[in-house]
Amino acid sequence: MTGLLKATNKKTKQTNPKMTQDDIVYGHIFDAILEQRLPPGTKLSEEALGEIFGVSRTIIRRALLRLSVEQVVSTRPNRGSIVASPTVEEAMQILKAREVMELAIVELAAENATPEQIAKCRAMVAEENEAIAKNDTGRSIRLSGEFHIELAAMANNLPLMSFQRSLVSQCSLIIALYESSKKTHCSCDEHTQLLDVIEAGDKQAAIALMKTHLDHINSKLNLHDDSGTQDLHAVFSNVLKKKA
Predict the structure, then answer these.
(1) The listed CATH number (3.40.1110.10, 3.40.50.450, 3.30.2000.30, 1.10.10.10) that belongs to domain 3-84+228-243
(2) Domain named HTH gntR-type: which ranges (predicted)?
(3) Residues in the chain with pLDDT < 50?
């Protein structure tokens, strides 16, 4: 095991003793996609990733397979894996699926959210505000996505949470491809308002606010934008620095 993975394992095992090398590699790649540091269409070389993370290609393959199940990575026979690149039609289907999912999630969250979960989400919004103030776009995008995943945790429904994780990451790919503005993707004020009505147990208000929130996100899409770098070593430069 490399020094990086030893250090990462030592840190994460304090909260999750069952964390594996597969989980760590998966987490790094998932976060890079969520932060839009890995743009759609990026070739995910098993050899390069194995070198970056200091693990076997078997571990890399398992992490990529897990991401392919979540539909954020596409595995092509005899050609390797790439970050998924949704077409316009696929993007519209994903956005509709997310709308249905998010509306169900906030309704259930208004019934089941605990004070601890509300407090956790409010802390995430504060972190998101801080990232926006520092123009840390990648971090603010990731925190926004994690906020929506945490809403699914509030719903107290494991299948919904699994689906939400996949849809949030797929929407990050859609934003990377098709958004006209590369600034803030979610309104922190809207996140706070959502938490207020969820905490109050107002299901109808939560559904209405989420619909408006998603409309604001979708209104920024022009369905033809594309940008980013496909250099794996540049994307994971932070990992390589830790290994040095």
Answers:
(1) 1.10.10.10
(2) 19-86
(3) 1-15, 184, 225-227
